[in-house]
């Protein structure tokens, strides 16, 4: 089949399945989408790409790839406290494989529906499997959760649990069985959108954990011109993680493993109860450290001894 | 070098070179960009990807790749009559090659500067060379140039000249010398942004020629529920094209060659002088046919005989 015909067919296949919203004046099917931002709102835009063999193992199910491609982007909106609205999708495929596209859309659109986000445009192209998504959300002026607002003395918090995605990847690399609970965290991360919304007016800074807790906190330190002290023994771990790894491996996976897509945020000490109350209906939150005056990111164990990860940073899958 | 460190270094390299705008409240450096849409404007969003070996020959100069990646997206805004404002860039590279990135930015930012468009976010990732860009523009409500407004009896117009990019590709495929003028049209297309703006209130439909004139007109026919009759002997050709190809090859390249990024639009017959006057300072325009009641896209030669391209559709580079 002529590749352009195949592309039009794929786009039509996508168009037939998508939901829309009243603020989408013109969606898929023209040169560009036409969108109506609500009065008084500012626009929040993030863009992230997943490449096969780099950001996910090549044998990942198409539906999981679709879910994750949107999830990692929604996570960026969550980290800003934004309300998701629209997305565009660029899908590069080695061939016009409609089965792959159908499966991909199963995951992508399931998550889109959860967050009432409309797919409004993009393209399909021939090329190595790669998925690029741009998400658009709204935010009330002056309420965005940024990286540059952390204050000395603030508590440091994290949502959910850490290390599961990296643990699944570690099991995948080892070539043995992968715990299904861990694998689900790798393949179908939960973007903490409603938690991000709830933290407006409470958190002084926020970031999502994509590259690993310590690495991502480095960005907060730099942007806010502060340091951060992390209590590695306070990091929340799932049952599955505790069941599969020893204590030191758990610390390493939690502190340096990426792809968790939990929110890590700072908030004033006097707002501790407000944090717990606001978060309660959205996600568990754990206090894991404190903002200090300098010296970047330091990690201490429960006895106050400095802790160093055996392996610095997270390299995604590669 | 650790690949995440390399990624941060590349992002910093990009951040240092970009211009900003007063409506960019927060650009590169947080989880998402924070943008202020002007009051009363609607948002126009387009996204297009270029993959190496599919959308450009692998040996294309990095600066030309950068230019083209933004140009094909700006062309979509042009086809809507929108005013460009912001873009995001996702750059997948086989390795963290800073020389490539510097060259790429030379072309990308030169075009961005011409159109006062700010790069506000995106990501870099490891993977086969692929460039995904999302562009954002503004449009006054009710003035967007869409594909669905063509009316029976309207004139059909095209800007600039057609076939040069496909001609360069044809010479490239043949393995011989490539005419520099033709090659420039392939590598550095001119998005017709100011022409698109000038056509608001005049054109009844508009599309940019990316896949080939006849193929792209098929979308207009479908969206507007009309037919179109194209006079293939009226199609504008450059000097370079006339110098390098015979009459039948020229027709074929003009009618079916893609990557021209000219605007093709319909307008009422009584607005002929308005079209010429509005276009005059932006780009030459040529009347190439008429909107008719049905039967999709038909092409006729000067003597009124139906013309069929030897090769249907345009396959980009592949």
Automatic annotation (TrEMBL), chains A, B:
| Domain (PurM-like C-terminal) ranges | 152-298
What Gene3D superfamilies does this protein map onto?
Answer: PurM-like C-terminal domain (3.90.650.10), PurM-like, N-terminal domain (3.30.1330.10)
Residues binding Mg(2+) 2 are: 48, 76
Residues that bind substrate? 55, 259, 314
Q: Please indicate if the UniProt record lists Electron transport as a keyword.
A: no
User: Could you say which residues bind Mg(2+) 1 here?
Assistant: 48, 123
Domain PurM-like N-terminal, residue spans = 29-138
Instruction: Report further notes.
Output: Reaction mechanism of ThiL seems to utilize a direct, inline transfer of the gamma-phosphate of ATP to TMP rather than a phosphorylated enzyme intermediate.
The UniProt function text for this chain reads: Catalyzes the ATP-dependent phosphorylation of thiamine-monophosphate (TMP) to form thiamine-pyrophosphate (TPP), the active form of vitamin B1.
Family per similarity comment: Belongs to the thiamine-monophosphate kinase family.
Listed name of the protein: Thiamine-monophosphate kinase
Q: What is the lineage of its organism?
A: Bacteria, Pseudomonadati, Pseudomonadota, Gammaproteobacteria, Lysobacterales
């Amino acid at each position: 089949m002529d590749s352009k015909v195949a592309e039009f067919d794929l786009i039509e296949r996508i168009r037939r399945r998508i939901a829309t919203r009243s603020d989408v004046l013109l969606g898929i099917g023209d040169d560009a989408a036409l969108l109506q931002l609500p009065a008084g709102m500012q626009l929040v835009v993030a863009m992230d790409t997943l490449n096969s063999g780099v950001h996910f193992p090549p044998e990942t199910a198409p539906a999981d790839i679709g879910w994750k491609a949107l999830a990692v982007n929604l996570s960026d909106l969550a980290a800003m406290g934004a309300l998701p609205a629209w997305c565009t999708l660029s899908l590069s495929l080695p061939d016009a494989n409609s089965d792959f596209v159908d499966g991909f859309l199963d995951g992508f659109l399931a998550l889109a529906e959860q967050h009432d986000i409309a797919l409004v445009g993009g393209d399909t192209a021939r090329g190595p499997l790669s998925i690029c998504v741009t998400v658009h959300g709204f935010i009330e002026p002056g309420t965005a959760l940024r990286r540059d607002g952390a204050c000395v003395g603030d508590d440091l918090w994290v949502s959910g649990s850490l290390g599961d995605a990296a643990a699944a990847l570690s099991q995948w690399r080892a070539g043995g069985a992968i715990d299904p609970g861990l694998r689900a965290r790798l393949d179908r991360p939960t973007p903490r959108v409603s938690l991000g919304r709830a933290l407006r007016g409470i958190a002084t800074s926020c970031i999502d954990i994509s590259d690993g807790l310590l690495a991502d906190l480095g960005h907060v330190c730099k942007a806010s011109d502060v340091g951060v002290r992390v209590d590695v023994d306070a990091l929340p771990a799932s049952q599955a993680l505790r069941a599969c790894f020893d204590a030191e491996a758990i610390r390493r996976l939690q502190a340096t493993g990426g792809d968790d897509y939990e929110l890590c945020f700072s908030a004033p000490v006097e707002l501790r109860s407000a944090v717990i109350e606001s978060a309660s209906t959205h996600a568990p939150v754990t206090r894991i450290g404190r903002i200090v005056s300098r010296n970047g990111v330091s990690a201490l164990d429960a006895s106050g001894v400095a802790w160093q990860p055996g392996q610095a940073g997270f390299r995604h899958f590669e």
